[in-house]
Write a structure and sequence with these properties.
Rossmann fold, 6PGDH_NADP-bd, NAD(P)-dependent oxidoreductase, 6PGD_dom2, N-(1-d-carboxylethyl)-l-norvaline Dehydrogenase, domain 2, alpha/beta, signal, binds NADP nicotinamide-adenine-dinucleotide phosphate, 9 strands, oxidoreductase, three-stranded mixed β-sheet, globular, six-stranded parallel β-sheet, about 290 residues
Amino acid sequence: MSQQPIVAVLGLGAMGHAFAANLLKKDFVVRGWNRTRAKGEDLLGAGLQLSDSAAQAVEGADVVIAMLSDGDTTRQTLAEASIALKQGATVCQMGTIGVEATDALIADLKKARPDVLFIDAPVSGTKAPAENAQILVMASGDQTRAQAAEQVFAAIGKGTQWLGEAGASSRMKLVVNSWLIGLMQSLAESTRLAEQFGFSTEDLWKVLDGGPLAAPYAKMKLGMIASGDFTPQMHLVWALKDAKLALDAAGGSKLPALENIVDVWQQAVDAGYGEQDLAAVYQYLKR
Ligand SMILES: NC(=O)c1ccc[n+]([C@@H]2O[C@H](COP(=O)([O-])OP(=O)(O)OC[C@H]3O[C@@H](n4cnc5c(N)ncnc54)[C@H](OP(=O)(O)O)[C@@H]3O)[C@@H](O)[C@H]2O)c1
């Protein structure tokens, strides 16, 4: 497709809103739907065509992005919209919905709309990278038919990594997030220990800086801890969802640290930290 595809974005939360905004900046025709309509209204001036239903939003769209919270919501929304999909449209599922729901979604669409191309396309990167079109798209599915999707991914991210048959990317996404979740818990605990010994977060970063342990992600999260501002880049409640999805899909793999983190993070969510950034686990440990 030489022309820009028409894109529908289903879900205008932190990530979907950033995708729609970047597509509009790059002159795509963008149709949007969100359960809470108000979240898309600030993009009306930039040209967003905001619909009252997912089915209405996907009408005439060449590429449909689903960026919703979880598997059940995504399956239900796409089931409602599937009848209205354009013949031969491409559906890109970009949320973190895990293995079981992804495989079920592939089967749902194959049955309801065999003409549609499904791309499993979760992303690496949080709200700020999404706003700056700096996310990485992990794509799987039939790349030979995915030119329209690739135009969209190029507008919202810094690159696309193709990983094989549809479903592979949702598996890789759980791998990446289990590492991220372990890193966050370890950083929160190390920071608590540093404080116990009288060191500041700045002391800790100065020792790490310049060496192989100085992950930019750790720097960002140490900054949140130092400032006490846990405005969510990634909600703790969604990170907990991802840890549970990884355990659900782990099969015979033993993941004892992740199991413990799920217990601790569930307690943190129950204690009211779920709507903050996942770095708020530090605050929970500090109570
Ligand atoms: N934020 C990140 O760092 C990040 C990074 C990579 C992947 N992800 C994944 O991407 C997905 C979206 O994340 P986000 O950060 O954009 O989340 P978010 O800001 O909480 O947005 C969630 C979206 O799902 C919608 N939704 C939730 N329940 C619904 C329901 N029952 N019916 C219809 N719509 C519903 C919300 O609509 P309302 O506005 O009406 O609530 C909103 O559009 C999640 O799977 C998340 O794990 C997030």
